[in-house]
Amino acid sequence: YVAVLNNIVYDNAPENGVPEGDQIDAGGTNALTSPSHHVIYEGNLVYGRGGGVKMNNEPLHCIIRRNVILDTGMDFYEGPTKIAICHNTVADGRQAVQFWGDGKSANFGGTQVRNNLFVDTTAYAVSLGNKTVSSPDSVHLDHNVYRFRTGNRRGINVNAADFDATFPPSMAGLDAFHKRTGQESHGRVVRQPKDRLFVDHEARDFSLRNGSAAIDAAGSLTTVVAQLEPTLLKVANAWFFQDGWNGLLAPDLVRVGEAP
Questions:
Q1: Which residues contact 87 (CB under 8 A, 6 or more apart)?
Q2: Parallel, antiparallel or unpaired: strands 224-229 and 232-235
Q3: What mean pLDDT is predicted for residues 151-165?
Q4: Mind listing the pLDDT tens digit for each residue in 16-61?
């Protein structure tokens, strides 16, 4: 139970880049006997020199949301399970989100990647790479908005045991990714110049500009699958929300309709 909230994390490496520390990193033991669980990264600004924003070694029931991550990306190693990755802006890094492993993971545990902005990466925007995972079916991506960097020919990479393919950085490439994998049914690629998506990319103001193509591009995080009692709702993907974790945080509030 760890909360990393509203921090500014930057330049976690010397100017020559070596040695390099990760900007935010939570994980269990190398032997995978004590996985990290119930970890939340929220409201953080990350930029400058340094490694990625990471969760390692079979993380379970974790949330990464509403962060602005610049110059790097998000990395997940070894069997992430029920991870919610939503409402983040990831820009100007090598990869926006990467799932990786060294052979111990069988799947990506139903991890949800929704409603994020993946902008101007220098390599693949999304990389699913783990040869022991048979296919990308156990991670779910949807309603993410992509803007591919001019001159970068790499879009999305899947490197699973029974599925090895790369998809070009274009709407056609995203459509092909959807047709081959079922992912990103509502994903979008925008082509506007830098001053059309955000207020001021060069000044690192990543607020959405009026008229931005990313406005209203998001979808619902989850849906109600059963109403067990008048005030007891069962939802799919409940791990998008947290209940305060026994007093560590103020719990999430979920509004149904107009009533408080």
A1: 65, 66, 115, 116, 218
A2: antiparallel
A3: 88
A4: 867 788 999 987 665 656 678 899 999 999 999 999 999 887 888 9
Cα separation of 206 and 225, whole Å? 35
pLDDT at 160: 80
Lowest mean pLDDT segment, chosen from 16-30, 69-83, 165-179: 16-30
Whether the Cβ atoms of residue 178 and residue 193 lie closer than 8 Å to each other: no
126 burial (CB, 10 Å; 0-12 / 13-18 / 19+) is: buried
Residue with tokens 């060294």: 102
- Mean pLDDT, the chain, integer: 89
Averaged pLDDT, 250-254: 90
* Structure confidence at residue 29 (pLDDT): 61
Q: Dihedral through CA 249, CA 24, CA 120, CA 218, nearest 10?
A: -20
Q: Residue 173 — φ and ψ, nearest 5°? A: -65, -40
pLDDT higher than 60, residue 101? yes
Instruction: Concatenate the DSSP letters of all residues of the chain into one string.
Output: -EEEES-EEE--S-TT--S---SEEEE--TTSSS--BSEEEES-EEESSS--EEEESS-EEEEEES-EEESS-EEEES--EEEEEES-EEESSS-SEEEE-SS--S--TTEEEES-EEE--SS-SEEEEETTS--GGGEEEES-EEEPPTT----EEEEETTEEEEE-SSHHHHHHHHHHHS--TT-EE----HHHHEEETTTTEEEEPTT-TTTT----S--EEEEEETTEEEETTGGGS---TTTTSPPP----TT--
